[in-house]
User: Fold this.
Amino acid sequence: MAKEVKLTRNQQVVMAALTDAGQPLSAYQILDLEVVRDNGLKAPLTIYRALEKLMALGQVHRIESLNAFVACDHEPHAEPAAFMICQDCRCTIEFSTTSLSRSIARHAGQHGFQMAGMHLEVSGHCEACASAH
Ligand SMILES: [Zn+2]
Ligand SMILES: [Zn+2]
Assistant:
């Protein structure tokens, strides 16, 4: 069990919005949600601040290729998150990168490359969309 982290009210609102959405949302999509506005969150900066904190806690991940944010689907984890992203419905599937990130870190080490970040995003079609084609 992850250690209990006290979220501020704004962070709770943003976290709940992402969890309910069950799919990646941009900061502006979050801002547009009625539940978010009803809770008094009206400025993009407020949303970004909450997202930054939630990402630092590992409860939210940023999907670079969609410029969107998604709730982590399990307990916060140390290894970077990786995603399969459906090009049709924009759903995302999070998967573990434990062995992948170890291999990437080894390659970086061999080249003396100083890694600053890692974004593992695989594009394609989810099972439902693929079978609809
Ligand atoms: Zn995660
Ligand atoms: Zn799909």
User: Anything to note?
Assistant: Residues 22 and 62 are 14 Å apart (CA to CA). The domain at 9-132 is CATH 3.30.1490.190 (Dna Ligase; domain 1). The longest strand covers residues 82-86. The first helix runs from residue 9 to 21.
